[in-house]
Amino acid sequence: MPVLVFDIETVPDTDGFARLYGVGDGMSPEQLAEMAFQQRRQATGHDFLPLHLHRVVAIACALRDRDSFRVWSLGGVEEGEGELVRRFFEGIEKYSPQLVSWNGGGFDLPVLHYRALVHGVQAPRYWEQGEGDREFKWNNYISRYHARHLDLMDVLALYQPRAYAPLDQVAQLIGCPGKLGMDGSKVWPAFRQGEIAKIRHYCETDVVNTYLVYLRFQQMRGRFSQDEYQHECALVREVLSNIPESHWREFLDQWT
Q1: What percent of the chain has pLDDT above 90?
Q2: Domain boundaries along the sequence of the chain
Q3: Which of 23, 59, 160, 196 has the smallest set of CB atoms within 10 Å of its CB?
Q4: What is the CATH number of domain 3-254?
C-alpha cells in the first residue's frame, strides 16, 4: 500500500465569516479577519478560529510507493481552494493509500471535511466504512483507532491530549530540521503579502518532517530494521538533493 503523508495550511475564511454574521459591506478581508479574531478571543481567550472557518491555501504531500519517493504541493499557485481539496480526495479515490499526518485527525481532516462540503467534493472511497467494501469495516479512514489513517501525534501520545507534542520539537529531537523560518501563525500575514509559494514550501517541509518521524516510528515498531531505516532516509536525502528549490537545500543543511 502506498504511503501518503499530508499537511495543509489555512487562512481565515473571511467570506464565510461575513455570510454567517451578516457583515462585510465595504470591509476588507483583513478587517473581517480581525473582527473574527476579536470575536474568538472574547469567547475563548485565544484567536484560533473554529475549524469550519478555515480556508485551505496549500496542501502538501509526500508519497512513498514501490521504489520511489516524491514530495509536492497539490495544484498550482493560482488554483482555488475547491480544486486543491478535490485533488486531495481524488488521490485517495484512485490509490487508497495509507494516510499519515501530524494532528491530521484533530485539524487537517476535519478542515478538509468542511471545505469538501462547501465545494461539493465527492469522496466515496475516503468515507467508505464497509458498506461497499467489507475490508473497510475493520480498517477505514474515519475511525480514530484504525490504521488506514495514522495520526502520529495522536498515536504517540496514546490518545491523551495532555501528552501531545509539537511536530517541530519532536522532529528536532530525532535530528530532523523542524520548522524553517515559518510556523502556522505566520501563514496569514504571508498570504496577505501574496507569498503563496513561501507558504507551499513551508507546508512541504512540514510534510517531510512528518515522514521522517514516521520512518523512525516504523523502526521503533520493528517494521524496519536499522538497515532498512537508513535506506529509507537515504532515499529521501537523494530525492531532495535533486530538487533545485532553496528550501530543500536549507532543509538538508540542517538535517543531521
Answers
A1: 94
A2: 3-254
A3: 160
A4: 3.30.420.10
User: Per residue in 81-120, is it b (16+ CB within 10 Å) or e — as a string?
Assistant: beebbbebbebbeeebbbbbbbbbbbbbbebbbbbbebee
Q: 135: which 3 cell numbers?
A: 475490508
Q: Which three cell numbers stand for residue 90?
A: 481524488
> What pTM was computed for the model?
0.96
Q: Above 90 in pLDDT, residue 6?
A: yes
3-state secondary structure labels for all residues of the chain: CCEEEEEEEEEECHHHHHHHHCCCCCCCHHHHHHHHHHHHHHHHCCCCCCHHHEEEEEEEEEEEECCEEEEEECCCCCCCHHHHHHHHHHHHHHHCCEEEECCHHHHHHHHHHHHHHHHCCCCHHHHCCCCCCCHHHHCCCCCCCCCCEEEHHHHHCCCCHHHCCCHHHHHHHCCCCCCCCCCHHHHHHHHHCCCHHHHHHHHHHHHHHHHHHHHHHHHHHCCCCHHHHHHHHHHHHHHHHCCCCHHHHHHHHHCC
Q: Please provide the size of the chain in residues.
A: 256
Query: Which is it for strands 68-73 and 54-65: parallel, antiparallel or unpaired?
Result: antiparallel
CA distance 67 to 237: 14
Helix orientation angle between 246-254 and 226-241, rounded to the nearest 10 degrees: 150
For 210, other C-beta atoms within 10 Å of its C-beta total 26
Per DSSP, what are the bridge partners of residue 60? 7, 73
Distance, in Å, from the CA atom of 213 to the CA atom of 169, rounded to the nearest integer, reads 11
Does the pLDDT of residue 24 top 90, yes or no?
no
